[in-house]
Fold Gas vesicle protein GvpN.
Amino acid sequence: MAATNESKQQTQKKSSNTSGRSQASQQKGSSQNSKGQSKKINAPAGTKSKQTTSEEQKQPKQQKIRTIDQIVETEEMQSILERSEKYLTSGYPVHFTGAAGVGKTTLSFQLARRFNQPVTLLNGNESLSNTDLLGGRIGYTSDKLIDNYVRKVYKREDHITERWSTGRLLEAVKNGHTLIYDEFTRSLPSTNNLFLSVLEEGILPLYGTQRNESFITVHPNFKAIFTSNPEEYAGVHKSQDALLDRMITIPVEDPDKEAQMSILKERASISEKEAETIIKALDWAKSTSRENDTHVPSFRLAVMTAMLSSEHDVKIDVKNDDFQQLFFDVMGHYFLGNIQGEDVSEAQKRMKEELKKV
Ligand SMILES: Nc1ncnc2c1ncn2[C@@H]1O[C@H](COP(=O)(O)OP(=O)(O)OP(=O)(O)O)[C@@H](O)[C@H]1O
Ligand SMILES: [Mg+2]
């Protein structure tokens, strides 16, 4: 169960680095950035700097693996976490719903952490099948035993054993994991039907798996956290009322300005003023979206801008060309969508002038 282990490792990593405002303020002035990685510091006078050997020069640059390793628990988030923990402990699943980038997945992982048990992550999608969830027959193993030790006696035995894979839901239900089912409405309602009896009767039916048992009983530690985007988003199936009726749905909204600033400051180790600049730039980018456009730049892009500026020493200033370029690259998808009949570079020039006034 590679995915299960991955999620487990990720959760453990995060647990060891649970942060709050206090930890961030302690880190200020230290030589570590928000991710606990050493920042470049000038060597004290008289110290020899380390010579880079040609071997080291040949090493390819290590790509960063981004994990949610610096969670800022805003007041709103704490309240949701407290309530959700109670509901899950009492055996009721919770469902976080809200627009893209408001922090639903972050919240789910942060909640899962509280239970200190393995986490299974499922991502909703059209092709998720019952076999992915429950498992199924993946083939046969055959063994042959040929015994010709005793002269003139020839004995041959064939053993054919069925090989089964265990689906992710079956694994989680059987072993008492915390299941995070991210964007569950993207899966077909017929696939999600499996959850009805898990959530209501505490059993997982093993339809179509051709196993001997017809269902398994849900482990008492099993907990389920669902997330979804509101239904107006394209490509999303209407959530099934019966399923929603069995879970506690909590709306998640964009963190307020103060919370957004805290997240940016902490995640990217930037100043209050720099965080404010990025938030203002994001607000401006949102204002350029066309009317009736439900897909507007999300807070996630502000986090990306802050992290990239911090890691690549780009001065966060709307008048700085490098910052402008970075911001346009990060927001590129939205800006390109808004250019109508205009030359791309001309439009960028115009928008950069507008950004300077933010
Ligand atoms: N409380 C927080 N502390 C630190 N970072 C946060 C917090 N909330 C959100 N973020 C960051 O904001 C970005 C968006 O969060 P997340 O991916 O959880 O949103 P989402 O609602 O699941 O989005 P989507 O609907 O697109 O999946 C991520 O980069 C995440 O790390
Ligand atoms: Mg998400």
